[in-house]
Write a structure and sequence with these properties.
- The protein is built from ten helices and seven strands.
- It has helices at 17-28, 40-49, 64-76, 101-127, 150-169, 192-201, 208-221, 232-241, 243-263, 275-280; strands at residues 8-12, 32-37, 54-58, 83-86, 133-137, 176-181, 225-227.
- A seven-stranded parallel β-sheet has the order 3-2-1-4-5-6-7, sandwiched between helices.
- The longest helix has 27 residues, at 101-127.
- It binds NADP nicotinamide-adenine-dinucleotide phosphate (NAP).
- NADP nicotinamide-adenine-dinucleotide phosphate binds at residues 12-19, 37-39, 42, 60-62, 87-90, 110, 137, 139, 182, 184-185, 187-190, 270-271, 273, 277.
Length: 282
């Protein structure tokens, strides 16, 4: 994809920390954004901040009906999107045995099944547009299974495998598939316990605007896959080639992870719809 000027992008997770910054960066790159999220108020604020360039579209992607609603709205959306960015996700930090079944379902439905359902429904239409692309927002934890994030890691590994296989399935077709992974970023998906863990482990945490700029550059370049940040880039490769080395490094961090995970309150996953959001959705 040469450039985003005068192109339309459908973006899930537009109301989130990275998503809102990505809206701004995409608009700055010349695109119009069909912004998908659950929260009407934040969608309205995004549209007001970018008049005529960010067009709000409310849908809850954690159910087949919600995905269907998003697809119906996108089919009628003008300008017609030729780029689909899959950014919506939820995460639940905690030792796996402390998560409940609803946590697991929310992560699998939102982070993995929703992207699969969206691509399944939208691919034929996308393929008929000029220079089409599907861009998945992954995670370092889609390359490194991380303690305290077992279910979230599983969904991001799944997303990475999905995009890789699709790219190979469509190697001779018009649609480009990209898997782009931010490292830790300062957004509401990370509760205070994760911030505390990152601080104690010395993990670098990026600002959403910087991540958004790198994502847009990667979209414009057409990168097939990209891990943002160093040393995350190195560790992701190391985990693929020599996982026993990463096993040993993470075993040293396990007591710290466990302490922060057990300190995290057992509550709804960050990013889950607030009662206000639920009230305003049809
Ligand atoms: N922050 C990090 O440390 C980090 C690191 C690596 C990768 N990532 C990835 O970056 C992406 C953006 O994350 P973020 O940090 O910006 O998180 P965030 O601020 O919590 O935003 C999450 C977004 O997902 C949307 N979403 C969640 N559940 C949804 C549902 N059922 N239906 C529709 N939309 C839903 C939210 O919409 P509403 O607010 O409208 O509900 C929100 O727009 C995610 O894919 C995440 O996995 C984040």
């Amino acid at each position: 994809m040469s450039a985003l000027r005068d192109r339309a992008v459908a973006l899930t997770g537009a109301t989130g920390g990275i998503g809102s910054a990505l809206c701004a960066a995409l608009v700055e790159a010349g695109a119009t954004v069909h912004a998908i999220g659950r929260d009407h108020r934040r969608l309205g604020a995004l549209a007001a901040a970018h008049p005529g360039r960010v067009l709000p579209l409310a849908a809850d992607l954690s159910t087949p009906a919600g995905v269907q609603r998003a697809c119906t709205l996108l089919a009628a959306a003008r300008p017609e999107p030729s780029v689909l960015v899959l950014g919506a996700a939820v995460s639940r930090f905690g030792m796996f045995e402390d998560l409940d079944s609803a946590d697991l379902a929310a992560m699998v439905e939102t982070n993995l099944l929703a992207p699969m359902r969206l691509v399944h429904a939208l691919l034929p239409r996308l393929a008929r547009t000029r220079d089409p692309a599907v861009v998945a927002v992954g995670s370092t934890f889609g390359s490194i299974g991380f303690p305290g994030f077992a279910a979230y890691s599983a969904t991001k590994f799944g997303l990475r495998g999905f995009i890789e296989a699709l790219a190979r399935e469509h190697a001779d077709g018009p649609v480009r598939f990209q898997y782009l992974s931010p490292r830790a970023t300062r957004t509401p998906i990370n509760p205070p316990a994760v911030d505390a863990l990152n601080a104690e482990l010395g993990t670098a945490v990026d600002e959403p605007a910087a991540v958004a700029r790198q994502l847009v550059a990667a979209i414009v370049r057409g990168d097939r896959r990209r891990q943002l940040g160093f040393p995350e880039k190195l560790f992701a490769r190391l985990n693929g080639a020599l996982p026993a080395l990463v096993d040993r490094a993470l075993a040293k961090q396990l007591p710290t992870v466990r302490r922060h995970a057990r300190a995290a309150p057992i509550a709804a996953p960050p990013g889950a719809a607030s009662p206000t959001t639920q009230e305003v959705l049809p």
